[in-house]
Automatic annotation (TrEMBL):
Organism encoding this protein: Bauldia litoralis
Compartments where found: Cell inner membrane
Domain ABC transporter: start-end pairs: 4-234
Protein origin, superkingdom: Bacteria
PANTHER family assigned to the protein according to its UniProt record, in alphabetical order: BLL2173 PROTEIN, MALTODEXTRIN IMPORT ATP-BINDING PROTEIN MSMX
Name by which UniProt lists this protein: Multiple sugar transport system ATP-binding protein
Residues spanning the membrane: none
Predominant location: membrane
SUPFAM superfamilies (UniProt xref): MOP-like, P-loop containing nucleoside triphosphate hydrolases
Keywords for the protein's UniProt record, in alphabetical order: ATP-binding, Nucleotide-binding, Sugar transport, Transport
């Protein structure tokens, strides 16, 4: 069992505070992804959990025990690095047994663990090979195998797929997910790739500038982003943000866009009359109306992806993207009329970035 909790965690390098008072928990057997742009502090946080980086302030708790001062090798947590860190002069078997030999584990037990891990990772036929004789995906699996043989309580993975080409990444992502289901151990997975986080994780921790912006399951993060940062970071193409004002009167609520265009909202919409807002709508939730019906936009680029049409244009200095499932003939310079599905819209306070709901 491995429950991990960080409590009021702060990290400074010199005078610079990198992580600002983070608190959250990771449940036993959960796969949690830490996701955020480069430099937001994901790796530093992971290294602190692993014991590779000192805690400046706060606590790291593993199964109700504060482990701030427990040495890395005594933590029962295994880390898999982006670079794999395989020994080139050792066979796959020797690479995988390395940490067990260091621990002076009996040979028979070493063998049992390596057989088991190799089978889990479909490496049984490659145990006598050297890393240079393996493909990228196989090397990645050996790196995973080295962690697996330790039978740790939790795995920490730092961008483990980033050295693989796009196709292999997708394949390994599915394999990792399946591996997690078979192993049933706690995993913390760092990535800057929101698609990877969405497809792999039970829960996602969205980080930005050393803060946690939101924690939730992939569907909650996607359907109920807490603020404009999360809304724009998760989902591709990114959510459209249309500036406007929230209006209410006579029991009605609506958004007033520039040019006087009005869009009625459900009467349950909260927020004060006159609030400056960003109306957030995902590209798949904008439809096209007939001429004069909706928000006018001039088309700039039309891209056909095979499955859908991606339409790009500008409105109020903002780039807008619309995904169309039905084929239709559209050209640059055409004017289209945007009809957002208001039931799927998000209203953000422009000043604070917070979701009004
Ligand atoms: P990436 O996805 O690019 O790896 P990240 O989110 O993992 O980014 P970190 O590597 O944790 O970010 O770095 C967070 C911040 O801490 C960065 O501004 C980085 O420059 C700084 N930093 C990391 N390690 C050190 C260090 N040893 N000394 C000083 N500053 C550091």
């Amino acid at each position: 069992m491995a429950q991990i909790e960080v409590r009021n965690l702060i990290k400074t390098f010199g005078d610079v505070e990198i992580l600002h008072n983070l608190s959250f928990g990771i449940a036993d057997k959960e796969l949690v992804a830490l996701v955020g742009p480069s430099g937001c502090g994901k790796t530093t946080l992971l290294r602190m959990i692993a014991g590779l980086e000192e805690v400046t302030q706060g606590e790291i708790v593993l199964d109700d025990k504060v482990i701030n001062h427990v040495r890395e090798k005594d933590r029962d947590i295994a880390m898999v690095f982006q670079s794999y860190a395989l020994y080139p002069h050792m066979t796959v078997y020797a690479n995988m047994s390395f940490s067990l030999r260091m621990r002076k584990m009996p040979k028979a037990e070493q063998q049992r663990r390596i057989r088991w891990a190799a089978e889990m990772l479909e490496l049984s036929d490659y145990l006598d090979r050297y890393p240079r004789q393996l493909s990228g995906g196989q090397r990645q699996r050996v790196a995973m195998g080295r962690a697996l043989v330790r039978e740790p309580a939790a795995f920490l993975l730092d961008e483990p797929l980033s050295n693989l080409d796009a196709q292999l990444r997708v394949q390994m992502r599915t394999e990792l997910r399946a591996l997690h289901q078979r192993l049933k151990t706690t995993m913390v997975y760092v990535t800057h790739d929101q698609v990877e986080a969405m497809t792999l994780a039970d829960r996602i921790v969205v980080m930005h500038g050393g803060h946690v912006e939101q924690i939730g399951s992939p569907d909650v993060i996607y359907d109920h982003p807490a603020n404009t940062f999360v809304a724009k970071f998760i989902g591709s193409p990114t959510m459209n943000m249309l500036p406007g004002h929230l209006r209410r009167g006579d029991g009605k609520v609506w958004v007033e866009f520039t040019g006087g265009v009005r869009l009625d909202l459900p009467s349950t919409q909260v927020g004060e009359d006159g609030t400056e807002i960003l109306f957030g709508i995902r590209p798949e939730n904008v439809h096209l109306g007939s001429e004069g019906d909706g928000l006018p936009m001039t088309v700039e680029v039309v891209e056909f992806t095979g499955r859908e049409i991606e339409l790009f244009g500008m409105r109020d200095g903002e780039r807008i993207c619309v995904l169309l499932r039905e084929r239709q003939r559209l050209n640059p310079e055409d004017t289209v009329w945007l009809k957002p599905d208001v039931a799927r819209a998000h209203l953000f306070n422009k000043a604070t970035g917070r979701n009004l709901n």
